[in-house]
């Protein structure tokens, strides 16, 4: 039985820790001030890391946070390369995690259904 390659999971966890730490301590862009990294997934070859994050506020704040994350991409990639001691750091992709919004919407719909 072949053992599953755990490297992508380990790398994803380290990237999450590194990015979250950098956002709170080193990235000075006010657009990412209230960003919370919720999860990171990495391709099997560790060439691409998709970082999901949440941010409080409306669509304007979310769009601004996405721009701020994109602006910090090079800095974050350098930090990841140093921390993980990788020859080539993965390409970083950022997405807004809308899971909490969806859960709140479902709760709202369920409450309306109970009332009606």
Description of the molecule:
The protein has one domain (7-115): GMP Synthetase, Chain A, domain 3. The protein is 53% helix and 19% strand. It is α+β, with helices and mostly antiparallel strands and 116 residues long.
Chain-wise SSE layout:
Blueprint: H1 7-25, E1 35-42, E2 48-55, H2 59-71, H3 73-84, E3 91-96, H4 99-115
Parallel strand pairs: 2-3
Antiparallel strand pairs: 1-2
Summarize this entry quickly.
By secondary structure, the chain is α+β, with helices and mostly antiparallel strands.
In which order are the strands of the major sheet placed?
Answer: 1-2-3
CATH superfamily: K homology (KH) domain
Strand elements, count: 3
Q: Can you tell me the CATH class?
A: Alpha Beta
Secondary-structure element order, as H and E? HEEHHEH
Structural class: alpha+beta
The total number of structural domains is 1
CATH topology: GMP Synthetase, Chain A, domain 3
- Mean pLDDT over the residues: 89
Distance between the termini: 55 Å
CATH architecture label: 2-Layer Sandwich
Descriptive tags:
single chain; 116 residues; alpha+beta; 19% strand
């Amino acid at each position: 039985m072949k053992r599953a390659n755990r490297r992508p999971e380990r790398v994803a966890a380290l990237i999450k820790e590194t990015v979250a730490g950098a956002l709170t301590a080193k990235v000075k862009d006010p657009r990412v001030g209230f960003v919370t990294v919720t999860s990171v997934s990495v391709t099997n070859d560790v060439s691409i890391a998709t970082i999901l994050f949440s941010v409080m506020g409306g669509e304007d704040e979310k769009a601004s946070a996405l721009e701020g994350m994109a602006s910090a991409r090079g800095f974050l990639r350098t930090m990841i390369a140093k921390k993980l001691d990788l020859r080539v750091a993965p390409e970083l992709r950022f997405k807004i995690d809308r899971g909490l919004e969806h859960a709140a919407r479902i709760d709202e719909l369920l409450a309306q259904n109970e009332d009606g």
